[in-house]
Amino acid sequence: MTDKITNWTKSDDASVENAIRRGASRRDLLKMMLASGVALSAGGAVFGRAERAVAATPVSGGHLKVAGLSSSNADTLDPAKASAATDYVRCCSLYNRLTFLDTSGVPHMELAEKLDTKDAKTWTVTLRKGVTFHDGKALTSADVVFALKRHLDPAVGSKVAKIAAQIADVKAIDTNTVEIVLKAANADLPFILALHHFMIVQDGTTDFSKGNGTGAFVLDTFEPGVRSIVKKNKNYWKPGLPHLDSFEFFAISEDNARVNALLAGDIHYAYAINPRSAKLVEAQSGYRISKSTSGNYTNLNIQLGSNKPDFIMGMKYLVDREQIVTAALRGFGEVGNDQPISKANFFHNANLKPKAFDPDKAKHYFEKAGVLGQSIPVIASDAANNSIDMAMIMQAAGADIGLKLDVQRVPSDGYWDKYWLKAPIHFGNINPRPTPDIYFSLLYSSDAPWNESQYKSPKFDSMLLEARGMLDQNKRREIYNEMQTMIADEAGTIIPAYITNADALSNKVKGLETNPLGGMMGFAMAEYLWLEA
With helix as H, strand as E and coil as C, how does 46-87 read? Predict the structure, then answer.
């Protein structure tokens, strides 16, 4: 018997691949190959090649079930009001943006076919033709004008109103062309338009409960605080997408319950599991961990208006960052330096060293603040990834020097509405953003909508505007480096680590990649994943 394969064609390869998808065993496949004159030794090579091809080739069909972290009655399908992963995932399945970011953070065109400018102030958007909304209406410039101008209307309550305020005017040039004029030059506009909030909605929409977008899926069921189900958009403008027939998303707030649901086969994908669960998942056949460090973080927010500066400085020295990475994050992270721009970003200030863990120095500041012996409430929740473990580490360190941190664990349900931005001392969880300007505009400028520690600095605001219109990237980096130092020294946000996200998923889930906008492929995974048969 010879090892040479005779009379074997690409059609035969395809037959083997299809048999694998149908669930054929290795024995069945070898019988098929022997019948075609393939030697056993060569058959193994054919089988391996077919397995690799099947793994890399998207499969159509299937119902993907994913569990996130938290949900509430405030869940929304209005992209402008989206504020957490739960909202982003759903909006990404229903709508499209003018641009999107690839795995390396480079902007590409989506609903926009071209985005042109000569001065970074006036931008011409040429729309892609042949795109329709779920209700059959064709996408036009009027939709883009309406969608972008909504962010400028205070009555809408857009989460990116501060960023959108850079827009001086948006107008339709013709049915397929839009002109965006900024108040000042901003070379980051292609990145900004890739944010989840800037999804394009239909002109005149006031009721978002139907999720009528141009996206890969059509809404079937939406129950705020409970779940959503979307079904494949058969008229989707991107050829071959989506692969799934349907996608279901809901929250299981408790980490163990989320992991157990995965291992029991009730879901295919568990988002943002606690690192301590990773070994359990990896020990089970048929499951894997997906890791990504894209710059998201969990931070302790101490509001400047409610707390003394000496207390805040003491807390920064009380944080044992190395222990948080090794114990709270189980090694799934990198030490942070109390500002939001991580090592993954070009503008990260590598010269800004994190404050060292120094209980004696912390005690000195606490004595100056007069807080030793007092009971100080700290709000933590599973909704802010790993915040409870972080809080316990800080509590133990404080107890050693006479500081009483009263860690109050509150439910995930409703956390972002009831506690975040409201409690004097609480944890936040910030998803990655592609540029420093976006981070600073959302979180640290004096009128930032998510100003977690109520930080206000006219100098910081002025520098933000100066850097925004600057085309000299080296000069821009100098300004951003100084701004990062200001945040670390002056703001009440403590960012002990940049988190390496750990998602747990079935090996049946294929096509997953990382994205700088966050986990679950920048929350857009439903469009690109497929389920192995």
Answer: HHHHHHHHHHHCCCCCCEEEEEECCCCCCCCCCHHHCCCHHH
> Could you tell me which of 47, 49, 33 has the C-alpha nearest to residue 1?
33
Mean pLDDT of 461-471: 89
As given in the structure block, the two tokens for residue 432 are 């990655």
pLDDT at 53: 54
Element (H, E) at 4: none
CB 114 within 8 A of CB 178: no
Q: Are strands 501-506 and 375-380 parallel, antiparallel or unpaired?
A: unpaired
350, amino acid identity:
A
Q: Are strands 333-335 and 497-499 parallel, antiparallel or unpaired?
A: antiparallel
Q: Which of 170, 148, 145 minimizes the C-alpha distance to 158?
A: 148
* Closest to 473 in 3D by CA, of 340, 345, 347, 295: 347
Q: Which two tokens mark 366?
A: 């606490």
Looking at residue 12, its pLDDT comes to 65
Q: Are strands 404-409 and 375-380 parallel, antiparallel or unpaired?
A: parallel
Question: Which residues partner with 217 through β-bridges?
Answer: 232
Peptide bond into 242 cis (omega under 30): yes
| pLDDT given at position 3 | 43
What is the pTM for the complete model shown?
0.72
Cα separations in angstroms, 15 against 5, 7, 12, 508? 15, 14, 5, 21
Please classify residue 97 by burial: count the beta carbons closer than 10 Å to its beta carbon, then call 0-12 exposed, 13-18 middle and 19+ buried. Answer: buried
Distance CA 213, CA 210 (A): 9
Q: What is the dihedral of CA 76, 77, 78, 82, to 10 degrees?
A: 50
- Of 349, 359, 365, which Cα lies nearest the Cα of 320? 359
**pLDDT for res 43:** 56
C-beta of residue 501 within 8 angstroms of C-beta of residue 342: no
Task: Taking residues 19-33, report their average pLDDT.
Answer: 58
Is-contact 268 531, C-beta < 8 A? yes
**Beta bridge partners of residue 232, listed in sequence order:** 217
Question: For residue 429, what are the β-bridge partners?
Answer: 298
Residue 129 in 3-state DSSP? coil
Q: Convert the pLDDT of each residue in 273-284 to its tens digit.
A: 988 899 899 999
Q: Strands, DSSP E only, in 303-421?
A: 333-335, 375-380, 404-409
Task: Kindly indicate the confidence band of residue 294, based on its pLDDT and cuts at 50, 70 and 90.
Answer: confident
Percent of the chain whose pLDDT exceeds 90: 77
- Return the closest-CA partner of residue 448 out of 118, 160, 48, 208: 160
Q: How far are the Cα atoms of 154, 433, 461, 481 from residue 485, in angstroms, in the given order?
A: 32, 19, 14, 6
Q: Which of 500, 481, 441 is nearest to 353 (CA)?
A: 481
Q: 15: buried, middle or exposed (CB in 10 Å: 19+, 13-18, 0-12)?
A: middle
Please state, in angstroms and rounded to a whole number, the distance separating the CA atoms of residues 138 and 149. Answer: 19
Report d(CA 353, CA 344) in Å as an integer.
16
